[in-house]
C-alpha cells in the first residue's frame, strides 16, 4: 500500500477520528469533483483491502474455531457428568444422614415408649378420634384396634400430567395407613373435611420430587397404576412429611416381623431326656439352625459390598450379589442370624430401588431414547418389581415424547410441520414398543399397561395435530394431506403387531366431521353466488392452452369431456356448471382421503346436499326460461350433470369405500332430465 494509503488508514483508525469534521475539512481542501472522486476511490480501495484481510483471517483461524467448538462441547459433556456425580453423592450423603437420624429417633422413641407407653397410645388415639370427627364419611376408621395418629397437615394436590393445582387436602398419617380428605367449601358445624381416599402404608411408595421453580416442595405417592402429587407449605414441612412417612412405614414392617416371630411356638426347655418323638424333632431343628454357615467372607462383607456397588452405580453387580445370597439361603431355615442378615440386606435393597426409581424418573435427562432406560428397568425386574419398572418406564417415555413435541418448531407450512410431528411421534412410539417388548418379554402382564399408555400418547399427538391443522382453519386439501400422512405413519406400527389406526380415527373423527361440513357450506354458498349471476352462455376459454388444461383436469377426474368441446376454444357448457363440477370433484377426492367408516353418512349427505343445489338451480332455470335456444342449452348442461358427472361420483365413491353410494343413486334416479312438451316446458323430474 502507498504512503498516502497508510496515512489514510492511520487517520481512520485513530480513536479521536470525527467523520463530520473530516468530511468538512476534505470538502474545503478539494478543488472540485475530481479530487472528491479520487478520495472516494482511495477509501473504497482501503475498504476492499480490509474486507480481504478479514476473509483471510477467518480462513486462517477456521480450524481453531472448529477445535474451540469441539472443546466447548467436550467441556459441556464433562460438566454434565460432574453434575450427575455430585447429585448422586448428595443423595448418598442424605441417605446416610437419614439413616443416622432414624437410628437416633428410634432410640428416643423406644425410651419414651418405655417411660410412658400407655399414656402416649391413649393420647394419640384420643387426638385421632377428635380429628376424625371433623371428616365426613370417616366414622369406621377407628374400628381397627391399636390405630392412632402419627402426623397430619394441609397439602395442595397437583395434576400429574400438567402440574396444575387441583384441590386443597388434609392428610392424616396413622400408624398403619394414610387418609386423604378434601376441604369442604360449605362447612357444616364441626365438619371441615370430606373423606377422599385411604391407603395402606404397604400399598404405596413415597418419591421426592425435585424442585423446579415455581414447582417446589412437592412429593409423589405411587400406587400402581396411579400416582398423586402433593405440595407442602415449605421445604421444612416437606422434609418432615418424607421423614415421618418413611419412619412410619419402617415401624409397621418391624412390628409385623416381631409379631410373626412371637406367634412362632417355641419348644419348651427340658432338663430330662424325653422319649417323645416331637421333642426329637425340635432338637433336630435347633441343630439345623446352628448348622447355617454365615461365616464365609463374602457373606460377612455383603452389606458393605452392596453399599459400594450402589455408590459406584454398579447396579448389575449389586443385583448379582443379591441373587447369589438368595440362592445360598433358599433352602436354609430362618434362624435369628439369617433374619438379622436379611434385615441388613433389605435396607440396601430399598436404597438400590430408590436409586433405580430415580434413574427412571422424568426429572432426569431424557437423552438417549428408550435404550437409556434399559439398565435400570432390567435391574428392577430382577429385583421382582416389574410392575414398578413398567410404570416408571412408560412415564419416562411419555415425558420424552411430550418434550420432543413441545420442542418441535411450528413452521409456516402446515404440511411440513405435520411431517416432522408424525416422524418424531411415531418413530418414538415404535422405538418405545420395541424396547418394551425386549425389556418385558417375560412379563406378559405388563402389555396391557403399554396398550393403555399407547392410547394416552396418541391422545397427546392428536391434540398437537388438531391444534395445528383444524384449529388454524386450514383448507380441506391441506387437512386431507395431513390426515393421510398421519394414517401412513400409524400403519408402520403394524410391523410390531400394534394397530392404533382405530384409536387415531376415533380421536380425529370429530374434527374431520366439522371440517367436511364447514367446507360443504363454503361450496354451497359459492355455488349459490354463481347461480345468482348465471347467464346460460357457452364458455369461451380464449386460448387452446386453457382448453387443453381444462380437458386434462376433467380427464384426471374421470370425466369424458371431449363431447362437450366445440370449435376453437368454446365449451358447450356454462361457466357455472364447469366450476361446480371442478369444485365438487375436488371435494369428493379430499373427502375420500379423510374417509373413516364413522364418516360414511356424513360424506354421503354432504355430497347429496352439494349436488342438490346445482340440480335445483338447473330445474328452476328450465321452468322459468322462455327462449327455446337457451332451454336447449340448459337441458344440455342438465344432461351433462345427470349422465356424466353423477355416475363418475358414484363410481369413484364405491371404488374408494367399497360400498355403493345408495343415496346418490336415488338422487340420480329422481332427477332425470325430460322434455314435457316440445313447444313449452322442460324440467328435471
UniProtKB/TrEMBL annotation:
<dbReference type="InterPro" id="IPR032403">
    <property type="entry name" value="Exo84_C"/>
</dbReference>
<feature type="region of interest" description="Disordered">
    <location>
        <begin position="666"/>
        <end position="685"/>
    </location>
</feature>
<comment type="similarity">
    <text>Belongs to the EXO84 family.</text>
</comment>
<dbReference type="InterPro" id="IPR001849">
    <property type="entry name" value="PH_domain"/>
</dbReference>
<dbReference type="Pfam" id="PF16528">
    <property type="entry name" value="Exo84_C"/>
</dbReference>
<keyword id="KW-0653">Protein transport</keyword>
<dbReference type="InterPro" id="IPR011993">
    <property type="entry name" value="PH-like_dom_sf"/>
</dbReference>
<dbReference type="GO" id="GO:0030426">
    <property type="term" value="C:growth cone"/>
</dbReference>
<dbReference type="GO" id="GO:0006887">
    <property type="term" value="P:exocytosis"/>
</dbReference>
<dbReference type="InterPro" id="IPR033961">
    <property type="entry name" value="Exo84"/>
</dbReference>
<feature type="domain" description="PH">
    <location>
        <begin position="148"/>
        <end position="250"/>
    </location>
</feature>
<dbReference type="GO" id="GO:0000145">
    <property type="term" value="C:exocyst"/>
</dbReference>
<dbReference type="Pfam" id="PF08700">
    <property type="entry name" value="VPS51_Exo84_N"/>
</dbReference>
<dbReference type="GO" id="GO:0048471">
    <property type="term" value="C:perinuclear region of cytoplasm"/>
</dbReference>
<keyword id="KW-0963">Cytoplasm</keyword>
<dbReference type="GO" id="GO:0006893">
    <property type="term" value="P:Golgi to plasma membrane transport"/>
</dbReference>
<protein>
    <recommendedName>
        <fullName>Exocyst complex component 8</fullName>
    </recommendedName>
</protein>
<keyword id="KW-0813">Transport</keyword>
<dbReference type="InterPro" id="IPR042560">
    <property type="entry name" value="Exo84_C_2"/>
</dbReference>
<keyword id="KW-0268">Exocytosis</keyword>
<dbReference type="GO" id="GO:0015031">
    <property type="term" value="P:protein transport"/>
</dbReference>
<dbReference type="Pfam" id="PF25345">
    <property type="entry name" value="PH_EXO84"/>
</dbReference>
<dbReference type="InterPro" id="IPR016159">
    <property type="entry name" value="Cullin_repeat-like_dom_sf"/>
</dbReference>
<dbReference type="InterPro" id="IPR042561">
    <property type="entry name" value="Exo84_C_1"/>
</dbReference>
<keyword id="KW-0966">Cell projection</keyword>
<comment type="function">
    <text>Component of the exocyst complex involved in the docking of exocytic vesicles with fusion sites on the plasma membrane.</text>
</comment>
Amino acid at each position: 500500500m502507498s504512503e498516502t494509503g497508510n496515512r489514510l488508514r492511520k487517520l481512520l483508525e485513530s480513536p479521536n477520528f470525527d467523520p463530520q469534521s473530516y468530511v468538512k475539512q476534505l470538502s474545503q481542501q478539494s478543488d472540485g469533483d475530481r479530487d472528491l472522486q479520487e478520495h472516494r476511490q482511495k477509501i473504497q480501495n482501503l475498504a476492499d483491502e480490509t474486507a480481504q484481510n478479514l476473509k483471510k483471517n477467518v480462513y486462517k483461524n477456521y480450524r481453531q474455531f472448529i477445535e474451540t467448538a469441539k472443546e466447548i462441547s467436550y467441556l459441556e459433556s464433562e460438566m454434565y457428568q460432574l453434575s450427575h456425580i455430585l447429585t448422586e453423592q448428595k443423595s448418598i450423603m442424605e441417605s446416610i444422614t437419614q439413616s443416622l437420624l432414624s437410628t437416633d429417633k428410634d432410640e428416643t422413641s423406644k425410651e419414651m415408649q418405655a417411660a410412658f407407653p400407655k399414656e402416649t397410645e391413649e393420647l394419640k388415639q384420643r387426638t385421632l378420634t377428635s380429628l376424625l370427627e371433623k371428616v365426613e364419611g370417616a366414622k369406621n376408621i377407628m374400628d381397627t384396634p391399636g390405630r392412632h395418629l402419627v402426623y397430619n397437615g394441609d397439602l395442595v394436590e397437583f395434576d400429574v400430567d400438567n402440574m396444575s393445582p387441583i384441590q386443597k387436602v388434609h392428610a392424616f398419617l396413622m400408624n398403619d395407613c394414610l387418609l386423604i380428605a378434601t376441604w369442604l367449601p360449605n362447612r357444616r358445624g364441626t365438619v371441615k373435611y370430606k373423606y377422599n381416599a385411604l391407603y395402606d402404608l404397604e400399598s404405596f411408595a413415597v418419591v421426592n420430587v425435585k424442585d423446579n421453580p415455581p414447582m417446589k416442595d412437592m412429593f409423589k405417592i405411587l400406587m400402581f397404576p396411579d400416582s398423586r402429587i402433593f405440595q407442602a407449605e415449605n421445604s421444612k414441612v416437606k422434609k418432615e412429611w418424607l421423614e415421618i412417612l418413611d419412619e412410619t412405614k419402617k415401624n409397621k414392617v418391624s412390628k409385623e416381623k416381631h409379631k410373626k416371630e412371637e406367634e412362632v411356638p417355641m419348644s419348651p426347655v427340658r432338663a430330662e431326656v424325653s422319649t417323645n418323638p416331637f421333642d426329637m424333632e425340635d432338637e433336630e431343628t435347633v441343630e439345623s439352625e446352628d448348622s447355617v454357615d454365615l461365616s464365609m467372607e463374602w457373606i460377612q462383607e455383603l452389606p458393605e459390598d452392596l453399599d459400594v456397588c450402589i455408590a459406584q452405580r454398579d447396579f448389575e453387580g449389586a443385583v448379582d450379589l443379591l441373587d447369589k445370597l438368595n440362592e445360598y439361603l433358599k433352602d436354609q431355615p430362618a434362624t435369628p442370624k439369617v433374619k438379622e442378615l436379611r434385615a441388613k440386606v433389605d435396607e440396601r435393597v430399598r436404597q438400590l430401588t430408590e436409586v433405580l426409581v430415580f434413574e427412571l424418573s422424568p426429572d432426569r435427562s431424557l437423552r438417549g431414547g428408550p435404550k437409556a432406560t434399559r439398565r435400570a428397568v432390567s435391574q428392577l425386574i430382577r429385583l421382582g418389581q416389574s410392575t414398578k419398572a413398567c410404570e416408571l418406564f412408560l412415564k419416562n417415555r411419555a415425558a420424552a415424547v411430550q418434550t420432543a413435541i413441545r420442542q418441535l418448531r411450528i413452521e409456516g407450512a402446515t404440511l411440513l410441520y405435520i411431517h416432522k410431528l408424525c416422524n418424531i411421534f411415531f418413530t418414538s412410539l415404535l422405538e418405545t414398543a420395541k424396547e418394551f417388548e425386549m425389556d418385558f418379554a417375560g412379563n406378559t402382564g405388563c402389555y396391557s399397561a403399554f396398550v393403555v399408555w399407547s392410547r394416552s400418547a396418541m391422545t397427546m399427538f392428536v391434540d398437537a395435530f388438531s391444534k395445528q391443522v383444524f384449529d388454524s382453519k386450514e383448507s380441506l386439501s391441506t387437512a386431507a394431506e395431513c390426515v393421510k400422512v398421519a394414517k401412513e405413519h400409524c400403519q408402520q406400527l403394524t410391523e410390531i403387531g400394534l394397530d392404533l389406526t382405530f384409536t387415531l380415527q376415533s380421536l380425529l373423527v370429530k374434527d374431520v366431521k366439522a371440517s367436511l361440513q364447514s367446507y360443504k357450506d363454503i361450496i354451497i354458498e359459492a355455488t349459490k353466488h354463481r347461480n345468482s349471476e348465471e347467464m346460460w352462455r357457452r364458455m369461451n376459454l380464449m386460448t387452446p392452452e386453457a382448453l387443453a388444461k381444462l380437458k386434462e383436469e376433467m380427464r384426471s377426474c374421470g370425466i369424458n369431456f371431449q363431447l362437450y368441446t366445440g370449435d376453437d376454444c368454446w365449451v358447450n357448457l356454462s361457466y357455472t356448471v364447469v366450476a361446480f363440477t371442478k369444485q365438487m370433484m375436488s371435494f369428493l377426492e379430499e373427502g375420500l382421503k379423510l374417509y373413516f367408516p364413522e364418516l360414511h353418512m356424513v360424506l354421503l349427505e354432504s355430497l347429496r346436499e352439494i349436488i342438490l343445489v346445482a340440480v335445483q338451480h338447473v330445474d328452476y332455470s328450465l321452468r322459468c326460461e322462455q327462449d327455446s335456444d337457451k332451454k336447449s342449452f340448459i337441458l344440455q348442461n342438465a344432461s351433462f350433470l345427470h349422465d356424466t358427472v353423477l355416475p363418475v361420483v358414484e363410481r369413484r365413491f364405491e371404488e374408494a369405500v367399497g360400498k355403493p353410494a345408495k343415496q346418490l343413486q336415488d338422487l340420480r334416479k329422481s332427477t332425470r332430465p325430460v322434455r314435457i312438451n316440445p313447444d313449452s316446458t322442460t324440467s328435471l323430474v
